[in-house]
Design brief:
Largest sheet: 3 strands, antiparallel
Shape: globular
Low-confidence stretches: none
Strand content: 15-25%
Mean pLDDT: 87
Structural class: alpha+beta
Distance between the termini: 37 Å
Number of strands: 5
Number of helices: 3
Strand order of the largest sheet: 1-2-3
């Protein structure tokens, strides 16, 4: 659906949609602009930018709600939540994200 260019000018696919199935993919976080405020990075926060970000987020959540898969139990669901892992503040490292989840690689 859309193409973009990296900092070196290399073209890449930034969003896709399947022609028959409800499958979408994006190379960006559509909801991120509303919540990220990083000095030195010009993330647009104007009214229209916020509306577009919220539209994308709402669209993806609405699509996800069409999935009828469920966990076998409430306990299995609770064990699967990202909140079980510590978030690491990475803002001082000039990361694109203010917080990241760091996982050790299993060998």
């Amino acid at each position: 659906m859309s193409l973009n260019h990296d900092l070196n000018g290399l073209e890449f696919i930034s969003s896709i949609e399947h022609t028959i199935y409800p499958f979408y993919g994006v190379q960006f976080h559509p909801e991120k602009n509303i919540y990220e405020w990083i000095k030195g990075i010009k993330i647009p926060h104007g009214k229209n930018c916020s509306k577009v970000s919220q539209f994308f987020a709402d669209f993806f959540v609405d699509e996800a709600r069409k999935n009828l898969h469920k966990y076998e139990s409430e306990n299995e669901e609770l064990e699967s939540l990202i909140y079980n892992y510590p978030a690491t503040y990475t803002g001082l490292n000039k990361s694109t994200f203010v917080q990241c989840y760091m996982f050790k690689k299993n060998v």
